[in-house]
Amino acid sequence: MSQANAVPTVKLLIDGKLVESTTTQWREVVNPATQEVLARVPFATAEEMNAAVASAKRAFQTWRKTPIGTRARIFLKYQQLIRDNMKELAAILTAEQGKTLPDAEGDVFRGLEVVEHAAGIGNLQLGELANNVANAVDTYTLLQPLGVCAGITPFNFPAMIPLWMFPMAIATGNTFVLKPSEQDPMVTMRLAELALEAGIPAGVLNVIHGGADAVNLICDHPDIKAVSFVGSTKVGTHVYHRASQAGKRVQCMMGAKNHGVILPDANKQQTLNNLVGAAFGAAGQRCMALSVLVLVGEARAWLPELVEKAKTLKVNAGTEQGTDVGPLVSCAALDRVTGLIQRGVEEGAELALDGRQPNVSGFEKGNFVGPTIFAKVKPEMSIYREEVFGPVLCVMEAETLDEAIALVNANPNGNGTALFTRSGAAARHFQEEIDVGQVGINVPIPVPVPLFSFTGSRASKLGDLGPYGKQVVQFYTQTKTVTQRWFDEDDVGGINTTITLK
């Protein structure tokens, strides 16, 4: 691609400086509502990516020894800078990703919550002490940083997911190399600029851009000690195996097929409102979207009301007032989603609401699909087996709660699920029997606050520790156990040839 285009170029962040890439490979960042080219993003050269890792390695030598209070104060300042720039960050995000301005602010805010949690690192990175475990012997643990860590983030949450990663890694004393999605890197770069303004030293945070080559370099580089990934199952599985074989710690949060189970005793209007928002918000482009509905027993009669409520959602550009459903992120995403809708029709599902080719005045070039609902969906259908990642809801039926639970547990993914009911007994039975990492009871998208950790399971997750909360402190630190004895000056001990400390 020629560099002659008069559009801004996205920079690399290496050693505390925003750097213009020397690459010959570029990709356009496109507004999905208008097809306007907003910027050009470089696919960094191997030399540039290696320089980012080398910078992080050098910075680690001093950053790891930075007092924990100093680290915490940087993130206190950082969270305030994010708050002060919330509107700007949301506007950038909406322009390049497409989600509505309120949803974009929510994207930033959920990341901000993790930054706030990182500011409390003094209470999170605590070891343990056992005094006098033997005669004048104490044992204690230290949670020490690993070194250079790296993150690979997806297009659908270009603010929140980077903020899941580098603040906690850096707060625990590591340095970081971030590779955001090449589809919408601009808001991530603005967050990186604010991080520098907050006082993160040169080399502690570096940002590279690219595709498969950048992913593989992160997996292979001997100086990178841990990798965090959020994205598709295909890429996540590749990252997990390749990086694990290179001796790294790896956590991969991947694909999903999230089910909402509706019992007939649920509050109908509240439930229908929740379902419509969870299925079609963010144009269905979130790994926690409620993309499958299981109507149990008499709740099967709710389908017509669900369809009518979905019809009321406004499809428009994310910048427009009152928009409920914005565009898909790219033309390729539009083709994929509409192709899967067509396959659903061909495979015999009942198209209760067809959202293809909506009329969006003023944004005729946008990648729009309106709310789409399939009824009579069967487990073998493509629209059920594949993660559509669009505003498409599959409706299935079950006679009993146990039948619905069996249906959910038979799906290979285990990211999130929700039950809607007024019965405490049913809710407890559901949460005990369901084999899914994150469970909502009358909560359609049960993503936990940062006091806890994101906990998908089965095919939705590889690695045992979640990407934020207390679990991620363990992920980004190595436990060192110290056993020590101090003798009094006049104490002369005898020779002890056993390993028992007395």
From TrEMBL:
Pfam families in alphabetical order: Aldedh
Database matches in NCBIfam families: MMSDH
Superkingdom of source: Bacteria
EC annotation from Swiss-Prot or TrEMBL: 1.2.1.27
Keyword ATP-binding attached: no
Keywords noted in UniProt: NAD, Oxidoreductase
Entry's family note: Belongs to the aldehyde dehydrogenase family.
An individual GO BP term: thymine catabolic process
Presence of keyword Transmembrane: no
PANTHER family: MALONATE-SEMIALDEHYDE DEHYDROGENASE (PTHR43866), METHYLMALONATE-SEMIALDEHYDE DEHYDROGENASE [ACYLATING], MITOCHONDRIAL (PTHR43866:SF3)
Gene Ontology MF annotations: methylmalonate-semialdehyde dehydrogenase (acylating, NAD) activity
Cited InterPro entries: Ald_DH/histidinol_DH, Ald_DH_C, Ald_DH_CS_CYS, Ald_DH_N, Aldehyde_DH_dom, MeMal-semiAld_DH
Residues in Aldehyde dehydrogenase domain copies: 20-482
Regions that span the bilayer: none
Entry protein name: methylmalonate-semialdehyde dehydrogenase (CoA acylating)
